[in-house]
């Protein structure tokens, strides 16, 4: 680092590591400030399923899939019912294919296109992931690349606690606080807020997300709204603070993610009356609130051996299986007895008729790969809040904006720190709407800063 400080300070060692690596590739010096010593296994990126949309990637072309940023934006518009930030959705769609190809080519990530099942709301297969389909592997790859990069330094544990700005509002320094309570100003040209959202702040969750406030929070404990507090303190605008990613499939006893691939392969969800309560294939995020509203805010996912085997590529699902929480039975009557829901036998028989095309599903569900067949399994699930989707308003370069639309010079935001593309509530969330803004906005911020500094020094 130069005596005048790094070119860029990145607050948050999740998706923000992409900004550090991309900026270093452009020849900039970067300091990453991270509050938790356990970020490799405790931040939201590491807790994800590592699914990154890439609209128009080379893997799609090789698979004969016709996709584009325009189609991605249309899918976002449809899922959010036109209430999302379509400008930002298009910007992220534009960068998405280049992003995943850069991750593979520059960072050496073994990415592949997920085609073995289809995520709700995506009109084509466009999610790319790594072996194991888990964010811990994603973080490990990013961190390995950071450690090999001389231009990137990390300061852990240290928490961004404020920003010092010039008289004209340009970011001049990051104020960093250490565990012993001491603090220092670190001069910098620019700062990226990559500290995620406010999911760990129960008061903010109760204020903005009352429908999910009593659910389990399954995210980083450092996601306490730092970006909101710091950004609004210097005049940043906010939007979509009621938006979040929920999940309807967290294993009750194991606190592991069962995963929605079970549903998309043909599993169903029952509440404690033994009956289904909607079309499960509409999406896992909105099903968190739906499950939270059922008796005792809990239910059961019913699957079979075929679905079990198809979901084993997911680390989360394997961990659920290994925890021993699945209940197995040879017929629906025995399963209903084992889970204490007598009505479930008749309900599962009705599901089988719909899956065979002998009846119309009363909730309008049309996606069944195959009827459930013995042996059957069930796992008790609870709803969870994974991360918030509202935050500081940013433009297509990830620059933080004021209410009047002007930029706060030198300040960027990504991921849950920024207002995302999921619209309001939980129903607008598409798979990858967490990681794409986390990685994509970080990538865009690094490119914009490098271009800006290059223009300054020419």
TrEMBL record:
It holds the Pfam family FAD_binding_2. Transmembrane segments: none annotated. Its cofactor is FAD. SUPFAM superfamilies: FAD/NAD(P)-binding domain, Succinate dehydrogenase/fumarate reductase flavoprotein, catalytic domain. Residues 7-434 form the FAD-dependent oxidoreductase 2 FAD-binding domain. InterPro entries: FAD-dep_OxRdtase_2_FAD-bd (IPR003953), FAD-oxidoreductase_2 (IPR050315), FAD/NAD-bd_sf (IPR036188), Succ_DH/fumarate_Rdtase_cat_sf (IPR027477). GO terms for biological process: steroid metabolic process. Gene3D superfamilies: FAD/NAD(P)-binding domain (3.50.50.60), Succinate dehydrogenase/fumarate reductase flavoprotein, catalytic domain (3.90.700.10). Keywords: FAD, Flavoprotein, Oxidoreductase. This is Fumarate reductase flavoprotein subunit. It comes from Actinoallomurus bryophytorum.
């Amino acid at each position: 680092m130069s005596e005048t400080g790094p070119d860029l300070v990145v607050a948050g060692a999740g998706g923000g590591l992409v900004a550090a690596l991309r900026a270093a590739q452009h020849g900039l010096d970067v300091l990453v400030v991270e509050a938790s010593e356990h970020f490799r296994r405790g931040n939201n990126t590491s807790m994800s399923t590592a699914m990154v949309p890439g609209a128009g990637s080379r893997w799609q072309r090789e698979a004969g899939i016709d996709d584009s940023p325009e189609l991605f934006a249309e899918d976002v518009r449809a899922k959010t019912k036109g209430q999302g930030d379509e400008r930002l959705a298009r910007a992220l769609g534009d960068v998405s294919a280049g992003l995943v190809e850069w991750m593979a080519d520059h960072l050496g990530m073994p990415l592949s296109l997920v085609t073995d099942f289809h995520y709700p709301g995506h009109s084509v297969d466009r999610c790319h992931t790594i072996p194991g389909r888990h964010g811990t592997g994603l973080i490990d790859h990013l961190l390995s690349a950071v450690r090999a990069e001389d231009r990137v330094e990390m300061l852990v544990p240290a928490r961004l606690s404020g920003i010092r700005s010039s008289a004209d509002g340009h970011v001049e320094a990051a104020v960093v606080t250490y565990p012993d309570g001491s603090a220092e100003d670190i001069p910098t040209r620019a700062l990226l807020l990559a500290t995620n959202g406010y999911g760990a702040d129960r008061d903010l969750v109760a204020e903005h997300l009352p429908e999910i406030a009593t659910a389990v929070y399954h995210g980083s404990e450092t996601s306490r709204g730092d970006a909101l507090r710091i950004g609004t303190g210097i005049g940043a605008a906010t939007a979509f603070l009621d938006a979040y990613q929920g999940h309807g499939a967290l294993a009750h006893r194991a606190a592991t993610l069962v995963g929605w691939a079970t549903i998309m392969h043909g599993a169903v969800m029952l509440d404690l009356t033994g009956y289904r309560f909607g079309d499960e294939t509409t999406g896992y995020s909105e099903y968190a609130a739906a499950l939270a509203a059922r008796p005792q805010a809990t239910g059961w996912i019913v699957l079979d051996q075929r679905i079990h085997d198809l979901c084993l590529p997911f680390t989360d699902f394997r961990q659920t299986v290994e925890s021993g929480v699945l209940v197995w039975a040879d017929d629906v009557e025995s399963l209903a007895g084992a889970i204490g829901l007598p009505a479930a036998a008749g309900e599962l028989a009705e599901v089988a008729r719909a899956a065979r095309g002998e009846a119309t599903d009363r909730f309008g569900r049309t996606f069944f790969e195959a009827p459930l067949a013995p042996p059957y399994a069930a796992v008790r699930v609870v709803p969870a809040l994974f991360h918030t989707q509202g935050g500081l308003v940013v433009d297509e370069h990830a620059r933080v904006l004021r209410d009047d639309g002007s930029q706060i010079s030198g300040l960027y935001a990504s991921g849950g720190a920024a207002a995302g593309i999921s619209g309001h509530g939980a129903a607008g969330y598409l798979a990858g709407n967490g990681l794409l803004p986390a990685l994509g906005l970080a990538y865009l911020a690094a490119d914009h800063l490098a271009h800006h500094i290059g223009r300054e020094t020419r």
